[in-house]
């Protein structure tokens, strides 16, 4: 469902993107080319800052927002998801947040008030807040990172993790094409 927010902003979705009919996009949301937005995802840009303004939620080209993902932002802050990035099932991205290109965010992971550098992998059931993840970092499953000093024990992303991320992104670009082809069938 594509709908306006109370201030009248309407999502802008590239024609080549696929948004599942059960997903909800509300407000100042910009969805790039060949993006896949899965069932029951919610992307909502509707909260205003103290001046009555809000920044957009931007989903970069060839990215995928999988089943049950929630993307929202506190007080109108910007959320940006780079190109060829995968946000896996039931994750929460709560702005302000910036996620670089070719990033993989694992199942049930929560990001809040942080940035994630390009090529990074954050595995399943992790919490990342109030920090900056540098490029090409690997955050293991169930990690809890609450500041930049918590990053000292984190290693660079492995080739296996990087190739897994690329495979997920490519698979979902293929899904966009398939779902676009059959979207009007019953």
From TrEMBL:
UniProt-listed Gene3D superfamilies: Hexapeptide repeat proteins
InterPro entries: Gamma-CA, Hexapep, Trimer_LpxA-like_sf
SUPFAM superfamilies, A to Z: Trimeric LpxA-like enzymes
Protein name (database record): Carbonate dehydratase
Lineage of the organism: Bacteria, Pseudomonadati, Pseudomonadota, Gammaproteobacteria, Chromatiales
């Amino acid at each position: 469902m594509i709908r306006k927010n109370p201030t009248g902003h309407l999502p802008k979705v590239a024609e080549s993107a696929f948004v599942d009919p059960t997903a909800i996009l509300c407000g100042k949301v910009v969805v790039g080319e060949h993006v896949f937005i899965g069932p029951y995802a919610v992307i909502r840009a509707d909260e205003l800052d103290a001046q009555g303004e809000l920044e957009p939620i931007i989903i970069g080209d060839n990215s995928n927002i999988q089943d049950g993902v929630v993307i929202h932002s506190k007080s109108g802050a910007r959320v940006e998801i780079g190109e060829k990035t995968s946000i896996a099932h039931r994750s929460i991205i709560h702005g302000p947040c910036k996620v670089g290109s070719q990033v993989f965010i694992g199942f049930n992971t929560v990001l809040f008030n942080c940035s994630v550098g390009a090529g990074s992998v954050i595995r399943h059931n992790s919490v990342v807040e109030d920090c900056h993840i540098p490029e090409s970092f690997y955050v293991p499953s169930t990690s809890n990172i609450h500041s930049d000093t918590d990053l000292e024990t984190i290693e660079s992303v492995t080739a296996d993790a990087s190739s897994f991320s690329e495979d997920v992104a490519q698979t979902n670009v293929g899904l966009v094409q398939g779902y676009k082809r059959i979207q009007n069938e019953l």
